[in-house]
What does this fold into?
Amino acid sequence: MTERNNTCVASAMQRRHQNFMKLLELTYEDFNYDFSQVRFDKDVDSLVRIRCPRHGWINTKAKKLLAGRGCVSCNTESLMDQGAMIYIIRCFDSQEEFYKIGITTKSIEQRFIFPALMPYEYEVLSLQNGDRKKLYKFEALLLRLLKKYKYKPKKSFTGQTECFSNIEPIRKKFNIFDVFGIDSFKRAV
Ligand SMILES: [Zn+2]
It folds into this structure.
């Protein structure tokens, strides 16, 4: 094999790894798994190493991660079919104020219980239960509408890329605070 071919194979593998990591990130945003040791450079039957917050470091097949199983000791079934919640929260401290949109399969409290996960104070503006896949589509739409208001918080945390300085466009368009009122928040927790 020529050197050029080797380079091509290497970059294809790299892309494959990157796509795999992106999928993990999207699928498991709310699970606090550690994927830092994951190296996806073989096939889906190969083992990868992840850290579960309950079970520590475990080896699992790449295809099981792709199927949404997460930690096999925690989950006997795919997590994909489970419901989820889309939330909008207002985050603030004495210096900053912004809004965050996200999807979680846990309650908001569980999602942000550790200060490292949410280093700001927050107020829940809206919360809606639904099918995970549909909520991801809906979230993508909301994020697109808010694109020009993207905000980068000064303190870093998981999900900090979905923060915005203003949410007026979606408030008008979806009448979001009537539909996803505080009542649905109370029902959900
Ligand atoms: Zn586990």
